[in-house]
């Protein structure tokens, strides 16, 4: 009875070890050719994925924040593979279009969805 448990444990350990080795080789093989291709070409290809989306989001937000007449604190930027979505509020209706134009001018932005609204002042009419 004890031998059967030992054999099962050995088989399970062998399967786990094999699957872990296969997974790490697959990940490594997928990333190495892309890195060598970029190094050989000498130019950076447009990156995709979470890091690229975060970088693009930061670039768009920084471009908006550089405009002193726009309060960028109430604007959120979502970037996905070059498509940018703007959410939040601005203080003046003229800023809605201006923010969209700023976002369109950032390198890497392929489209802009503008969901900005004008913030109404508290207690005002």
Automatic annotation (TrEMBL):
Span of domain BON? 52-120
User: Which of UniProt's keywords are assigned here?
Assistant: Signal
> Any signal peptide, and if so, which residues?
1-24
- Superkingdom assignment: Bacteria
Species, as recorded: Paraburkholderia panacisoli
Does the record's keyword annotation contain Signal?
yes
What is the protein name stated in its UniProt record?
BON domain-containing protein
């Amino acid at each position: 009875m004890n031998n059967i448990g030992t054999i099962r444990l050995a088989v399970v350990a062998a399967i786990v070890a094999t699957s872990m080795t296969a997974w790490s080789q697959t990940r490594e093989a997928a990333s190495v050719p892309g890195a060598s291709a970029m190094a050989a070409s000498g130019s950076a290809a447009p990156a995709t994925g979470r890091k690229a989306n975060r970088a693009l989001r930061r670039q768009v937000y920084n471009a908006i924040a550089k405009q002193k007449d726009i309060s960028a604190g109430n604007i959120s930027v979502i970037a996905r593979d070059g498509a940018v979505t703007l959410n939040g509020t601005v203080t003046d209706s003229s800023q809605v279009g201006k923010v969209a134009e700023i976002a369109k001018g950032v390198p890497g932005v392929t489209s802009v969805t503008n969901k900005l609204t004008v913030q109404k002042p508290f207690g005002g009419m």
